[in-house]
Design brief:
single chain, 189 residues, alpha/beta, L,D-transpeptidase catalytic domain-like, two-stranded parallel sheet, 4 helices
């Protein structure tokens, strides 16, 4: 018969093998999909999912208010939490309609910041958050399924050539036509 100590050692060894096998399987699964990253244009208040240098999706966002700006730089997603609980200055709000984080949380490698849903969708398109990137719940739910822990998130504060490519300015409206131009008459004759 094995002693309790020997059984614990065997169980620990088997557990270790299972953990390594699971990690290898996850790594293989993740390497099977193309590399993805998120680029957030703070001045445009938009987020893009980039895969193999192609824009997959663009979403409107809310970014940090002037008093609490969004951080800038390159970060990684460190956790993914469906139906998060919000903790702030002694307050706790459980998942649900009143939760300021909405239905999903993608935590970033800069402490206290993330990409999340909202219970105030009218804030989208504004500088309104405490520094996080806010999205409509339906949009963050889509994003949540596209991204993994370890994916890169770039928060950019100023327009760059890459941002121009990802988030081109809207086309200028066509000049209004006069009745003479519509009729094919040229007023210069």
């Amino acid at each position: 018969m094995f002693s309790l100590e020997e059984r614990i050692k065997q169980l620990a060894a088997v557990t270790g093998v299972l953990v390594v096998a699971a990690a290898e399987a996850l790594a293989q699964d993740r390497s099977a999909r193309p590399s993805r990253r998120i680029v957030v244009s703070i001045p445009d208040r938009k987020l893009a999912v980039i895969e193999s240098d192609h824009v997959v999706r663009v979403y409107p966002t809310a970014v940090g208010a002037p008093a609490s700006p969004s951080p800038t730089g390159s970060f990684t997603i460190i956790d993914r939490i469906p139906d998060p609980t919000w903790y702030y200055k002694g307050k706790v709000v459980l998942p649900g309609k009143a939760n300021p984080l909405g239905t999903r949380w993608l935590g970033l490698s800069v402490k206290g910041y993330g990409i999340h849903g909202t219970n105030v969708p009218s804030s989208i398109g504004r500088n309104a958050s405490h520094g996080c990137i806010r999205m409509r719940n339906r949009d963050v739910e889509q994003l949540f399924e596209l991204m993994d822990v370890g994916d890169t998130v770039e928060l950019v504060a100023e327009r760059t050539a890459e941002l121009e490519r990802i988030f081109p300015p809207p086309a200028a409206p066509a000049a209004p036509q006069t009745a003479a131009a519509v009729a094919g008459l040229d007023a210069s004759h």
